[in-house]
Structure formats: structure tokens, C-alpha cells
Amino acid sequence: MIWGLLFDRKGYLHQSGWLRSVRRMQAIDVTDCPIPWLSYPFIEFIEPRLNKFMNVYEYGSGNSTRWFAKRVGLIHAIEHSLDWYNTIKGNLPDNAILVYEPLELKADYHDMAFMDVNDETPYSLNIKTRNLLYDIVIVDGVNRNNCIANSIGCVSSNGVIIVDNLEYSGQMQAGLNLLKDAGFKRLEFWGLSPIVYTKTGTGLFYRPDNCLLI
After folding, report:
1. How many CB atoms lie within 10 A of CB 168?
2. In degrees, to the nearest 5, what angle opens at C-alpha 33 toward C-alphas 27 and 36?
């Protein structure tokens, strides 16, 4: 009975591609196409709201870079891992520009992801070197608190900021407080995401007049 529920082709775990993502250990859908490593409810929410007039900045790269590039006009992404950068860069379309910016810290990934909000690095500051206001900024890499801090001034007046892994809100509280102080409202999308079998949250931070019309 349980196995039937898990592998029923009409079931959510199959149709969302979650089972396939676990087997392949990649953020992919049921047809093996790349999807963001964000919560499924958020992906379903934002996909129909994207268009080719939008530009995106992404802290952290991966299948999400490819997925967004297919749906928006331009995406800039930054990556701190050289191995991952070399893996991703060869699979990107022309409208996706990926840069490598190492974060030379003797710490594990968790420590690098949730550094103090005042710990500025070339990685977190890269968005300011682009001289562009973005419609969407995605914070899903390292040094998240300071990346949030720098993103606030680099989104357009109707731009939105996406922060993944709200289950770690405590470690990102300083950055999340900055968004609140800047007048951003918060919409949370909780559920499964590719590969992961525990509940995860993706946060959408927006102002009343926003490009997603919410």
C-alpha cells in the first residue's frame, strides 16, 4: 500500500519530479529538465509570473540559473565554489552570465552561509558592481545576511527579493530585519523541494507595487 502511494504516477511525488530528483540527486522535474532548488509551492507560484522583460540576479548558481534563464531576459549569477562553477558554466544559455568569486574562509558551508550581516565580501558586494537595478534578486548561496543587505539597494522600485531556506530564519534574522525595515512584506512558501525530504521554506519579499503583481 505504502509503495503504491509513493510510486503512483498520478501522485504528487511523481508528477512534481521529486522521486526522480532523489534518484538522480539533482534539482530536476519529472522530464529531467532543470528546476530551481526551491520549494515546489514557490516554483508553481512564480513560474507564470515571469517574462522576458525581467532581469534577475542570483547569489548561488545551479539548475535554477538555467531554469530562470529560459523564462526571463537576463540573469547574472555568482558562485563561490570553483568546482561547481566549472560544472555549471558550460550548460548556460547566452542570457545567463555566471561569475566566480571565491570566499576564502576556513569554515564549513553552514558557517559561510550565515555569516554576520556586517561581514562584507567581494562575493556579497558583486551585485553592486553590475550598475543595474534588478527585478528579482535570489539569495540562496553563502554570506546570506550581507547579500540581503546589498540586495535592497539593487532591486528596482518594483523589484522583489527571494530568500531560500526560511527554516534557518534565526541565522538570517539580521538580514530579514533589514528587509522589514526597508518596507518589504513577506510571503512564505513551505513544502518539499527537489532532493530534500524535509519541509523547507522559500520567502518572497515584496513591496505593494511589485513586478509580480501581488
Report:
1. 16
2. 40
- Residue 188: strand, helix, or coil: strand
101 in Cβ contact with 112 (< 8 Å): no
Q: Express each pLDDT in 47-88 by its tens digit.
A: 999 999 999 999 999 999 999 999 999 999 999 999 999 999
In the block, cell 558583486 appears at 126
130 φ/ψ angles, rounded to the nearest 5 degrees: -85, -15
- Return the C-alpha cell found at 100: 566566480
The answer to whether domain 35-206 has CATH 3.40.50.150 is: yes
**Grid cell in block for residue 7:** 510510486
Query: Cβ(132)–Cβ(151) under 8 Å?
Result: no
The domains of the chain are located at: 1-33, 35-206
